[in-house]
């Protein structure tokens, strides 16, 4: 399970200080060292760890943790609040256009879970947000199987898929899909885009052109939680190029250490909006920083 190691170590670090009532400054320092190591081992970005530890330490010293008879409880509260803050504080919902259709662009590297997430998101938006007739757009024309994959997902969910095969520019496909959606009353248009194995300028140029052509309300980046700090670097690059509006962290059902989920918000200052929790099309969860923090702290 994700965060397992981190959970264990954080809980261990915190409970070790609280056993005999009052704690000393040395106990606190030792605990902070352990928290720092726990985060580094969970593959959290080192700058993020440094800032986090400093913040928790200052708050612990500034409050009456050292005088308290239940220091562990107070530290848990501080760590909980700081972890929540680190992951963005409040839940950030999807941006919806005031005039439909709402246009969303899904971007990310190949294999991150883009195409699957297009389907998951369409299902979520219809079932949870009550929007009707999502149109899924097959804009990943470089991976031939991607068009068929999206069609299959559309069929499974009973949603319309717009495709023009693989010989047409994705910018044209996106434009025409949007025109069609306006004519047919699709309330949401979700555009799948091409990925690559690595970030490159050609890809970013194409994505920038699609963005300029359809002016999306959301540009959601899918990153694979299992890739750890690479996911953070990828997010940074996509955000630089496209000014994304949010992140979907996929494969959080795997045994990832969780570093990406804990670092991304702080590094790129864009919200995590959802997490992917499995291959099935209902395995998408809205991201709540406070719930994730509670889960980590057990
Ligand atoms: P794309 O190349 O970015 O479009 O990636 P795909 O949507 O084809 O996904 C790549 C693989 O990851 C597929 O086998 C998906 O079933 C799988 N996948 C996507 N999201 C998740 C997730 O949240 N959890 C798990 N376990 N697998 C996922």
List the helices and strands and how they pair.
Elements: H1 4-18, H2 25-41, H3 46-62, H4 71-86, E1 102-108, H5 114-127, E2 134-139, H6 144-157, E3 160-162, H7 170-184, E4 188-193, H8 201-214, E5 218-224, H9 229-242, E6 246-250, H10 259-268, E7 272-276, E8 284-286, H11 289-297
Parallel strand pairs: 1-4, 1-5, 2-3, 2-4, 5-6, 6-7
Antiparallel strand pairs: 7-8
The structure holds guanosine-5'-diphosphate (GDP).
Residues 108, 110-116, 195, 222, 250-251, 253-254, 276-279, 283 line the site of guanosine-5'-diphosphate (GDP).
Organism: Eremococcus coleocola ACS-139-V-Col8
Domain SRP54-type proteins GTP-binding: 101-298
Catalytic activity: GTP + H2O = GDP + phosphate + H(+)
